[in-house]
Protein 1
Amino acid sequence: MSLDQQHLDSIAKDICVPFIAGILAIAVPLITQTIGAIDTKYSSTRLVKEFYKENTYRNSIYVLITSLICVLLWLLKIPRVFDLGILNGIVENSSLSLLVIATIVLIIYLFRLVKLITIYYDPEKLLIRLKKDYSNIESFQAISELLYFSINQENQPLERELETFISECCTDFRKNKPNEVIVYPDKFYDLIFEANERICLHKKKSLSTYINSTQLYIFFDGYNNTIISDNTYSTIWRCLRQQIEYGEEEMIVNYWVFAHQHFELNLHQINQVYNNSYEVTNQKEIDKREHERERFLEFHYALGGFLMYKCKFKLLGRLIKYTSSSPARYCLVPETMTDVINRFMKIKEPIIDPWHFLRRYPFPENVGVNRDGTIRMWMKKYVGVLFLRQYTLNNNYYGGSRLSFPNLPINLSVLNFWEQELVNLRRYVDEIQENKLLLTEIGFPEFKDQWFETNNKPKPLDLINEIINITKKKFDEIKTTQPVSKEKEEQFKEITKDTVLNAIKPYKLISNKNEFESEKTWFLNGVRQIVDKTAFTDNQDIGYLYFDSSYANLVATNYKLGISETFYSIPKKTYLLERNEIFDAIDKLKISPEEFIIVTFGVNFSDYLQSNTQGLTKNKEEEDNYKYKNVEIVNFQTCQTPLVGNTFFILKLDDLPLIKHNKANEKFKLDELDKETHLSAKVFDLYKENDIRKLIEDEHNSKDFKKSALVCIELNTEIRWKENINCFCLKVYSQFWDRGTPNKLEDVNEWESE
């Protein structure tokens, strides 16, 4: 071996191999201890995983393994196989060259690894490193672990850095998204929720950044005019519930301050903008802002209801008294009694979403089917507190009185709802006045009679009773004086005409074609009904189903039943027969289609058709008419079933009744709807029709009918039967309805023999 070769081997043996061995002895324990230290220091496996992902760590492992391979290659001293000429020397010493290079790179990565470890040991340096890649959700989760660490360790520089960083992240996320609903990633909501709980649990030093603080203000956007989403409201609600459950009242107050400022500065009402035609050009923006404001206010009224639910009266007193201006201006609570009552009316059971409040503002330990109603109740009780709060404020408010009544609605259904809700408000206010602990902790006076006399203010219950009386008076006034709707009256007339004439049409088939006089006469009349006038007005207190058709249906039904009764009253020969003997009995009568007709009531001919009754056919021109061996059968389903149900009347065409429609009674001037039948109808407004009202009041012992209407339908129908007619009546026997035994088929004789 040459001297140069010995020198090179000594370099590998005395320098490279010891260095690699030494670094291996240092690096492995160092890495192991570092991972354990990170886990111990931050109590986080996420930061350990983040350390594993560092390129410096990964490359250090790769270089260390490569160095060991180079040592192995140098020790094996694999001889050269081929003659490469001038490259022989390089190839023969290649393992040594690789070993030297690997040693140098390993030393470099050792220092880089040590630097990385020092960064992970220093939370502030680690934050700077992680912030470079915060767009990656995993990195952001690692940053959240630093946030939890800063809270637990009260590391104030780190706390300030993280607070600023998270706020900037939210601002960047909302950037260039004006008027959009902002939904943050779920993991960001989880970060805020977890951080909030740790803040609540941790015993803070007096100088901690998070003392009496909350991170919830970061959701309030004061620059981009973005909209808070339902997901964000839900997270804020969960965090506020945490703070209340842990007794962190200062955090609630701090949040209220931010919310007050946000509503005042960023959710102010938008003024109307007019064009040259005096039309509002920004109505959509105004409506959108009003929706935002209403959502924000509803949230904080739910918060007030929750504080009432948890009996946090002192805290509630601090919130409702907060103001940031002089003269005092309150953004999140009502300024006047009008605002109080209007807010109370808005807390009602939703029609579309029956779990509206439960879904948005769940209360703990609130179980049962009426969970949503329980939340609404506590929100209303909170408004009851705000009702009494008006008594403690300066009575003058921009030239008016804080206790002035609200403008009442004009819709009857809304007025009816107001009356019911005002009764509930009276009950809640009475309960609150009796709760001395609540009054004391909120800071209200005891509200004794002397206090109201001294301050010259009406008692709360008297004030509510007065509003209730005014509401009732307005309700009665509108209900009495409003006119009958012309459109609804015309609708009533049209439906009446169609319904009644359709009922009359089939009976023309059994009306005698010839006039005759007779003492056997029956009369059918229309209907006169006193009804609530609001059924026929535009402004209704409740819904009225079938107001336009029920009376017409009554007239049509009475018409059908009345005619069927006259068939029961005429002289006839009656046979009670089994169902399958009916048409055999008709055959025995030997009637001709030119002279006779069969009139039936309540007969189901489908059964006879299905049983293939010979000679029975359906008349295609008429819906429920048939022929039996060319004899016309007219069937009516609506009838007096106990009298003529399931019955066949066989008589001559000349003996059919004469059905006449006479002119309507002229006692009331009705509008004629059909000239042929003299069908007439009208709706009388008894508030305006004084003569008719007095006549009706005299008939009903002077009862007041000013709020009523008289619905009149006149159909003066006369039914004449000849005095001496020959009629066969074949009734289908029923073992359930008929007594005795049925006749035999042999009992039925030919028509002539009768």
Protein 2
Amino acid sequence: LAGTISERHAEAMYESLLRDPAEAEWRSEPIEAIAFLATPHLDSIARWLLIVGESRNYPKMVEIDELYRRHRFFSALPLGGRDLALRWMLHAPKESLPQSAIDQRIDFLTRYDGYKTLSEQLENTRQQLAKQPIQMEQGSAEQKAQLKKFVEMLGDSKTLETMLAKVALRREPAEMVFPPQPVLTDLVSDLEPNQTILYVIATPTHHLFLEISIRGTKLLSSVTNKDLGNALKKLFSDTELNERQIKLENLEKIEWQEIALKLTELLLPKLNLEDYAGRPPQLTIVPDGLAWYLPFELLRLKNERGEASWLCDRVAIRYAPTLGIATLCSRTAKPWQRTAFFTGQINDELKQPISAEAFAELQKQYPSIVDFPERLDIPSNLFGSTVDELIVWSDLEGTPKGGAFAITPVIKDRAVAGSNLAAWMSLPWQGAEHIVLPTFASQGANGPKGKFNGDELFLATTAMFASGARTIVLSRWPTQGQSALTFTEAYWKRSKEMPTTVAFQETIREMRETQLDMALESRVDGKKEAVTKTASHPLFWAGYMLLETPVLSGAGERIDAMLQNQGAAQPGESAEPDPEAAKDQQPMKAEEKPANVDPDMENAADPKPEVENPQKKDDKKDSKNGKDSGKKESKKDDKNNSSDDDTKKSES
């Protein structure tokens, strides 16, 4: 077709061919729909993105790039994410679902009463375990009873997964709700005046940095991949972050601040971070490609007087792997009360058990927290569903050969089935909401090399959100010393008293002024005995990322209030099925039933005849993810569909 159709017709063709399968397609050709999702179409979506880029329609480019990210995630999952879609439709919190998916849930459970009964049984077991002490006395009758409950949970989860695997191939609609696909005009009109989104699009030749705010969408910069890569290499070289160890005498050098300032001017010229009605600005960053390895926190902004300050002092920063997760995947705020630590060796060179010692001191202030210094015999995908927080104070391996989904965040259960991120996305759906991994090492931990493109960070963090996480803290590079414990302990304490974005911002400020014992920092080279230095070097504070979904119940106003009270630094300051569907809705044959199905559950996956859901409206409208269907539908058009005339045309 090359040269035979216009760009306008090509764009319409791509939009028709590359969209998610619709409900009618799931009801008629589910195998074809699965094949589409499981087959990578990234090159085709990239060409579609290039066509739209020619017209500088940046809002449309963002929507296509979100589709690209979703498809990247789906194609890495079994059955193209079909199982995950069913889990979310049936088990995710209602506030995270559009009304259409809630209607599908009601309809499914009305017809599959066996599945409904077993899922309720699983949830009841999970809630019972969530009310028990996290840790029981070894060998006690209570611990044995607890382990028995976990075994019941494991059995029910496996049975439900077996049922879903069969349903996945039937003509059953299940909307691909995670990650959610945003409509930019709707999203922009819902932003607060003090909220800004920095969205990065990585193409084969360029990185585009876009600013999304209530004022619209505009291009900040278009940087070649080569220029961005060279600038990052220069930053890592000047800070010695590209080295296994940093020389002790170089920790106080500040020459690297010049390249940080140049990076800001290159990537974020005219970034708008204005206060509004006394409400401090908030910045959400959606990185891609090499931008995953860029520590935005250490970029330098100048004020009108030419005085420079850290970006993280000027604004509270949070990250997200997709725009949909950042804005639409809402969760109801609840206190994090059940906290499990996993202590262990931070680095082989440090023989001193610093994580166990730090936990012992912390437990004196917070007696309810527990530590698992030895092996965890319960799979972490089950254990995580009964606690609110998982904090790992032990060394983690890099991305294994099996890819990002083979990462085992809780290293104590590495040899146990159910320990990796792939298992975390299975049932039971509910995982820990707050995950802290200060020893995580990305592939770009020592600077961008080879063909690293941030995939391990994108897939790992998206998988954690898919398993039920609400807030994630991890490191781009591990510090391999006491500083990792100092940082996360200070952040964790603050998170009990203030919104996490504020807690994170305040912890970075405090960390830069903290005195560290260099003998406990394995990435520092030299005679370190009895030497203390201020943790002003970016090794100790700039590598951490806070990733978070939106929080309901007036969280935005609460964050504004906290930022005002904390006195955020300013620049310069210190710093229903069709007839075809009925063919597939036949009871399972006896030989098809899973071997571990309980006799009482033999009809669990057998659907009843479908009935019209009384809660469905005849004129059911599409609704935004997590919003009421009655929400206003008139939205403001994007004011900035194109950049200024003098903006250089994107060469992406």
